[in-house]
């Protein structure tokens, strides 16, 4: 199914430090947008705008977990009133996570660049900014490690490739105890529901932002030890798989 | 209760933490979704945010009382102090300034130096959002909901916001009345 790129329908409120582009976010483009002040918006005379504060200011900041739980719970309740079923609800949560993924991707790259350049600033070696992942595995490692650490303070618990020869485009990221589900209890008739669909949306945003067309869904896979264990199923589109083969032949890492 | 003692409760109350950016971004996506659902009718978005806050407030007060262990406030001035120095400190890790009291001690302002909900935010440049949308309006609802649970009917609204180009972010809170304990209606 060839859906139009979702960036086109993205919201105009920029809650991600980066003014939203209508196209795929590219670093150069966002920098251009950052340097020019929108002419129509009023700014405080003391210049307390997002352009005047450092993007790393909130890097290690923490907030109450209860506040997150209250907000997320209210977000799910609100979404629930406007949908017809579980799938619809999960789709909506996914869509709300998606723009976060696009922005977090830029944030991750921005931060990994600034730390490596400051670490090397004393030496004369020129530090090249980290490249965006070109191959699937690099991308998945970025999600499994740095993205998870940024959001949840730890890496995800597992990263697996589908063993079935029919679905080589499927990968699984496992979180034994997703933080977002800690305070969610689904009613019995909605036991299939997994509100980590929100996180699936974030993953989808990151992949799409990197140029990997993907569908991501969250599934309950409880074990005795981990009752809320969740598997994020990442399914890459056919064009991505074809490109992957070409890149592999060309020896691109 | 003395003001310094109140601050100490706010500082010392232990809370489980999460990454602040996750909270900020989640709130952002909620507001963005509302703007989309209500077709950028910002008055309706404000109302819905207030309603969501009210729902949160009704449950948050219990968490607040359990965590802080504080008792009943003697008067509305003490309540204001408690909101700013304990409530906001626990849940948003900021301490707004309480000021601009009316002489009858029923209305005050909270001035926010910092507002984690509005980190990274720029309102849409559509010529209306800066005049109509109160981005952090959920906070008004939270206060309304939580105080109602402890027998205070209040009214809260923002009067300025740095996101709108104002120099400060200020919320006005007014005590409407103390709710008397009402007996359940007699059974017939």
TrEMBL record, chain A:
Location in or out of the cell: Endoplasmic reticulum; Golgi apparatus, cis-Golgi network
Annotated signal peptide: none
One example of a Gene Ontology biological process annotation: endoplasmic reticulum to Golgi vesicle-mediated transport
GO cellular component, one term: TRAPPII protein complex
Biased composition (Low complexity): 26-38
Key words of the record: Endoplasmic reticulum, ER-Golgi transport, Golgi apparatus, Transport
Region of interest: Disordered: 1-47
Transport is among the record's keywords: yes
InterPro entries in UniProt: NO_sig/Golgi_transp_ligand-bd, TRAPP-I_su5, TRAPP_component
Pfam families in UniProt: TRAPP
Family: Belongs to the TRAPP small subunits family. BET3 subfamily.
Function per UniProt: Plays a key role in the late stages of endoplasmic reticulum to Golgi traffic.
Assembly description: Part of the multisubunit TRAPP (transport protein particle) complex.
UniProt protein name: Trafficking protein particle complex subunit
Species for this entry: Penicillium rubens (strain ATCC 28089 / DSM 1075 / NRRL 1951 / Wisconsin 54-1255)
UniProtKB/TrEMBL annotation, chain B:
Superkingdom of this protein's organism: Eukaryota
Keywords tagged on the record: Endoplasmic reticulum, ER-Golgi transport, Golgi apparatus, Transport
Primary site of residence: endoplasmic reticulum
CDD domains: TRAPPC3_bet3
Subcellular location: Endoplasmic reticulum; Golgi apparatus, cis-Golgi network
InterPro entries from the UniProt entry: Bet3 (IPR016721), NO_sig/Golgi_transp_ligand-bd (IPR024096), TRAPP_component (IPR007194)
Pfam families: TRAPP
SUPFAM superfamilies, A to Z: Ligand-binding domain in the NO signalling and Golgi transport
Cellular component aspect of the GO annotation: endoplasmic reticulum; Golgi apparatus; TRAPP complex
GO biological process: Golgi vesicle transport; macroautophagy
UniProt entry tagged with the keyword Transport: yes
Family under the similarity heading: Belongs to the TRAPP small subunits family. BET3 subfamily.
Name of this protein: Trafficking protein particle complex subunit BET3
